[in-house]
Amino acid sequence: MSLLNIGGGDDPAYRYKMPPVVGKKEGIGNGKKTVIVNATEVSKALKRPFQYLVKYCAVELGAVSTFDQVQGSGTVNGWHETPTLQDKTNKFIKEWVLCPRCKLPETSMEIGKKKEIIFDCKACGYHGQADMTSNLATFILNNPPDSKGGIQDKASTGKKTKEDRKAEKAKKRADKGKDDDEEEEEDEVVEASSWDKRGGGGGGGAKPPAASDDDDDDDGDWAVDVSDAAVKAREDQAQASFDKIDAAMSEAKVEDKEDKKKKKKDKKSEMVMDDDFGESPMLMQMEKIRTAMQPALEKSEAGATDEAVKMLGAVAKENDLKPNDLFGFIFETFDANAVKQIGAHAKLLSKLYKAAPDAKKTQSFLLTCISTLVCGEQRESLMKKTPVIMKKLYDLDLLEEEAIVSWYDKSSKKKDGKAVREAAAPFVTWLKEADSDEESDDE
Hints:
The chain has helices at 39-46, 50-60, 82-96, 135-142, 162-175, 180-190, 228-268, 281-301, 305-319, 323-332, 338-344, 346-355, 359-374, 379-382, 386-395, 401-409, 415-442; strands spanning 4-5, 17-18, 23-26, 33-36, 65-68, 73-77, 107-111, 117-121, 127-129. The protein is of the alpha+beta class. A 4-stranded antiparallel β-sheet has the order 3-4-6-5, with helices on one face.
């Protein structure tokens, strides 16, 4: 098998070579998958962990990936032609292997102190940051490379095990209550937010922190009253939030239909008025909220999460909105680049999730948001990315296995509901198979 030049070109004297990608189609029906047989050999030539290459190809193809550490191969759900896999590999090389300055594959990769990915080029001395908006960046940060060309710890599956998650949560609960002085300083910032003195129905609810971006995984940032009265109050407020959004969207749809009928009737008599649409107070209020949230989302996308939280807090307080309400408006802004947009707002979404009083209802609402998003105007491009979108939220701990599987198993009679579940099938299958593997290991 003839070797290829890393980075392209046909110069036979070029010193940097790699074997061509070899793909093998397996399975039938919903079990279709493509195995990158020589993922390890290709990645060794590129000096990158083979999981990075497989993950990149999967994300680019809108599929889910799995890894076989023993065989050194990777699997991408669905059938994909070998030339397509080679094309995605060439793109991976351009973005994650070649030096931006000298274009040679002499770069090494490391994680910086501020959780950024740094490239160092041995050829020209280049030292710079990778594109952190890339779909692969989050995966690399969660699965950092080691000094032997692999990735650290248990990252080969691309997910934490249930035991890992339980241990982390137990540690977080044990750490609660510490550093009282820091908590008092955080409360001063919380007073400017939307959830100040309102999350628990009388002062005990969830409040956003004044913590830095490096502390996003600290559950101690959110003070939660767990008394029966407070829990009941938060559940009532969460339900009220859902009802508010549903009522707003229902009225918007009804008025939109009525407006279209009126315009059609007026057009016949040449009496159409340009300002008919948008006169509803509810529609005007929703548009006002969208406009007010835009600066906060721009701050979030730029990495200024704390400022974004404060600004969204002010909008929420002024309009009596809860975290779930804000989730609905944020998902409205996503388009065909939804996966990248979720990554750009990852820290903000995590803050909102921690502020929500009922995690189960919030996860149910997020699944509804996903369905609405992929069945909307960008249906053609987003429907096939449903598994990737769910995996993204799953990796951010905004969706849990139980919630996803329960939603999937609860069939829908609606056409869109069926279509979304069918599109999500590869990811749900992967979740169930991962659980089965863990149970087998335990036995």
